[in-house]
Amino acid sequence: MTPVARSGPRFWAILGILAILETAWFAWFLLEPFPNFSGPERPDFCRLHLLVRAVPAVVPGVKLRETHLGNALEELSHVENLPGRVPILLAAAFIAASAVATGNLALRGLRLRPSLDSWERIAVGYGLGTIGLGLATLIVGRLGWLHPWGIRAGLVAPIAAELVARLREPRVPVSQTKPIRRSPWPAIGFVLVAGPFLLIMLLGSMLPSIDFDALEYHLQGPKEYYQAGRIAFLPHNVYTSMPFGVEMLHLLGMEVLDDWWSGALVGQVLVAAFAPATAVLIALTARRIGSPRAAWVAAVVYLTTPWVYRLAILPYVEGPLCFFHAGLIWAAFRGLGTEDSGLEDVGWVSGRETHQPNRPGRWVSLRSPTLQDLVLMGLLAGGAMAAKYTALVSAVVPSFVWAVWATWRSKNWRLVAGFVAGLALVIGPWLVKNVTDTGNPVYPLGYRVFGGRHWDPGRDAKWSAAHGPKPVEAAALVRSIVEIAGRSDWQSSLYVALVPLAFFCKTGRREIVFIAGYAAYLFWTWWLFTHRLDRFWLPILPALAILAGLGSDWVRSRAWTVLLSAILGLAIAMNAVYCSTALAGLTDWMGDLVTLRSEVPRVLNPSLYRLDRELPPGSRPLLVGAAAVFHLDRPIVYNTVFNDETIEAIAKGRTPERVGEELRRRGITHIYVDWSEIDRYRSPGNYGFTPFVTPEVFDRLVDAGVLKSARKMGLRRELFEVEPAVSRPR
Question: How far from the centroid of its chain's Cα atoms is residue 722's Cα?
């Protein structure tokens, strides 16, 4: 679209009102207390407090080293620790190259590669390639063929195949037309603005994880697969039966480096790589619907969002999930625009547009969706569901509706069949795995429909109470809207600042309404059908970023450009300050990894750290109430709160003598009980914890001579040693 420059009293009045509204919005955003980080001691702790301590001289007497900028520069100054990260970077680059090659081979198979520009081939190829590598790892792992050298050789194969395919490509004659000269300043500006965020994403992804879910299953599951040399059902960790398409990247990293700890960091780097890949697809979509400015701003809005930074430095699946949702929007609009609607067109404000503007109010498409397009959408939707079950609603259902619409429009049933084939190819193996292990394809979900082993009505009710939909209340709806708008600790102010302006664009209106409708669908399905955990609404960010990019170019005017620059400058500065603090995650970006491998577990859970370091070699403790166990070096027995409690299975209905025999039969030498964690589970609104586990259970075992007296390991944490078997005289 080509916004028309405006002037006159009416325009200046509109711009003045807009400036007032934007100022009011930023004032609220800066002054609203953090929901997770404000408390009784600092009830008004907000972003403004961070901003005033960002640079020296704002607060009198505050020196550079005491500011957030000074702290960030100090953390980034330890370049002597970079060599320790080289193996991680090389392994991640190796796997990423294999993923891009695998994805491009898939695009060749679909005959889509010639229609994509170089940015699309890299971004889409990476996403498709991670899907392919994840499925290959699943199959190899189920067969018990996990081995470092076998995995390394397997990763080389697609790289070699893609190189051969490129060498065999016919040479394209060099065009004799004079190339269009484009200003380099937009690209330079993008690097200057987004570059620091990408840098700390990369460095932050190579730090040990501190997140509970990551330590319980995102990383712990791949660790157990690596140590076992195979992918098998883990009856003590229900979360590992969910689709693990993203977690396979961690397993690949572990195999390539032949080390579970540093391999997990490789996987985190690969997860972080989804952030720039998502930004590319967001920019491409905004460019096709709108203008070069829309593309640049959309990418900047996404990459500078603190949530995106957080998703890059923690091994969550929502970062890849955002990629697949962005990919589905990109695929739906792939036919929009003209040949010159790729990222190579880097104009900003001045200069002529190189394509004909879309007509107002009309869909503009070079062609109808083809079978290959629908297969690609099926693969992307499958990739989303292979990352998280919730994508069945957020990605699979809407893209299936799109496939049905394309089929009805073209009267070609092969289109919807192609979509289903692509979807089944990706998600099918994960569903088959669950059927084999439990009899339920979507275990632990769908118990009332599919039933299944290792689950029962009581456990299903407990799961549903924790993860089921919340009550539908007007006050809760308002809170959720305000949270997504800006109250969330890791949200950016740019979405509310720019998204509404997209509806004032004179062209591309139907496309804007379509994307806004999809964003509304994502919100309502999150709000109505989930337990409203904040991470679950994050797939809405790509759609909002596209709209924000389009809103940034709602009018062509130098005055609006100045106001837009002020809006972007203030918001990005705030986001940069926030990401530089511990509120967004660890900031030891250049810390010594050897030290961090020891220090992070020690600070995170001193009691578990002591347990891991102080027990003698050959010990095998049973953990009760503790499940965030990834950092432990020794063999352990544990279970999640939704699985059978191991101590209950051992002790319930047995005499103390028989309990001792069962403990020794299982090779358990110690029992570690985390009463504080058990109390947390039992607190109102939490998951709950089996009533069987009480201090009296352990007191009886101590009195009977099965366990030695408890050793204090910390506040409300105890360690019992199992007494060895007593030889009876014959």
Answer: 41
By C-alpha distance, which of 626, 653, 649, 621 is closest to 637? 621
Q: pLDDT tens for residues 170-196? A: 876 765 666 667 778 888 999 999 999
- Reduced to 3 states, what is the DSSP secondary structure of residue 708? coil
Instruction: Please calculate the CA angle 493-280-282 and round it to the nearest 5 degrees.
Output: 50
**Of 137, 509, 519, nearest in space to 360 by CA:** 509
- Helices 292-303 and 541-551: crossing angle in degrees, nearest 10, is 140
Sign of CA dihedral 228, 231, 233, 237: positive
What one-letter code names the amino acid at 262? Answer: S
486 close to 499: Cβ distance less than 8 angstroms: no
Q: How far apart are CA 183 and CA 189, in angstroms?
A: 11
Of 214, 291, 384, nearest to 1 by C-alpha is: 291
Q: Tell me which residue has tokens 């991670």.
A: 130
- How far CA 219 is from CA of 155, 244, 249, in Å, comes to 21, 11, 10
Which letter does DSSP use for residue 455 in this model? -
Closest CA to 140 of 303, 17, 3, 251: 251
CB of 625 closer than 8 Å to CB of 611: no
| Residue 383 near residue 355 (C-beta atoms within 8 A) | no
- CA atoms in the 13 A half-sphere facing the CB of 586: 24
Look up tokens 């030290």; give the residue: 595
Q: pLDDT tens digit string along 596-629?
A: 999 999 999 999 999 999 999 999 999 999 999 9
Contact 95, 256 (CB under 8 A): yes
Residue with tokens 């669950």: 434
Q: Using CA atoms, how far apart are residues 451 and 445, in angstroms rounded to an integer?
A: 9
Q: Which residues does 706 contact at the CB level (< 8 Å), separation at least 6? A: 656, 657, 659, 660, 663, 722, 723
| C-alpha span between 280 and 329 (Å, rounded) | 12
SS3 718: strand
Nearest Cα neighbor of 642 from 459, 444, 452 is 459
Burial (Cβ within 10 Å: 0-12, 13-18, ≥19) of residue 75: middle
CA separation for the pair 438, 431 (Å, rounded): 10
Query: What is the tens place of the pLDDT at every residue in 316-375?
Result: 999 999 999 999 999 999 865 444 445 544 443 333 333 434 444 444 444 578 899 999
Q: How many CB atoms lie within 10 A of CB 694?
A: 12
Burial class (CB in 10 A: 0-12, 13-18, 19+), 729: exposed
